[in-house]
Design a protein that fits this description.
By secondary structure, the protein is an alpha+beta fold. The protein has a domain of about 55 residues. Helix content is about 30%, strand content about 25%. The protein contains 2 helices and 6 strands, in the order H-E-E-E-H-E-E-E. It has a 4-stranded mixed beta sheet with strand order 3-1-2-4, with no helix packed on it. The protein has a two-stranded antiparallel sheet with strand order 5-6. The longest helix is centred in the N-terminal third of the chain and has 24 residues. It is elongated and about 70 Å long.
Amino acid sequence: MTRLIKAVKIGAVAAAMAGGLVAMSAAPASAHIACNRAGECWHVNDRYDYPPRLGIVIHPDEWREHHRGHMRWREGHDGDHGYFSRGHWRAF
């Protein structure tokens, strides 16, 4: 019986360590808001360096809560590397 209890304890410790390793290796999700000069905004997964001529500014995701009614929100674009212009997604 003591061998069974010892095996269960070892198994529990091994499972806890494996779970800790998985949790430590998971990257935190990061989302940003990109907005153009015309007031169109959309979600992006990483901070892409847009060409300055496009006039696109990147904001943290929390920014949206304070500017929800002032911007036109665009979603459903294909891919992260691109931008909205006059309501249309322009991929790079």
